[in-house]
Amino acid sequence: MTTLDRALLRVDGDHAFALLGSDIQSGEVEFVKVESDALVGTSEWISAASAAATKAYRKLQARLNKPNMTYALDRSHPRAC
Fold first, then answer.
1. CA 18/CA 52 separation, integer angstroms
2. How do residues 28-48 score in pLDDT, each as one tens digit?
């Protein structure tokens, strides 16, 4: 049986990150700064935070050489349902 690698995309303060593993200390993680001076929750900030999370995911995917790695949005991600 194969295992499925799924990163969790999160936003915390002015950084977004992609986490593969159970926590930051023992997993693999990439951080990217949210490049926006807009107020949190505005459409500008949501776009910037989402882009930063995607960039973090792509960086993690490339660093770990896992082109088939999938992702899920954490509740902290601005586009999470």
1. 10
2. 999 999 999 999 999 999 999
Q: How many CB atoms lie within 10 A of CB 16?
A: 27
Residues 6 or more apart whose CB falls under 8 angstroms from that of 57 comprise 7, 9, 18, 30, 71
> Sign of dihedral through CA atoms 39, 13, 78, 61?
positive
Q: pTM for the complete prediction?
A: 0.91
Task: In whole angstroms, give the CA distance from residue 47 to residue 39.
Answer: 12
Domain ranges of the chain: 6-73
Angle among Cα 20, 32, 58 to the nearest 5 degrees reads 55
Buried b (16+ CB within 10 A) or exposed e, 55-74: bbbeebbeeeeeeebebebe
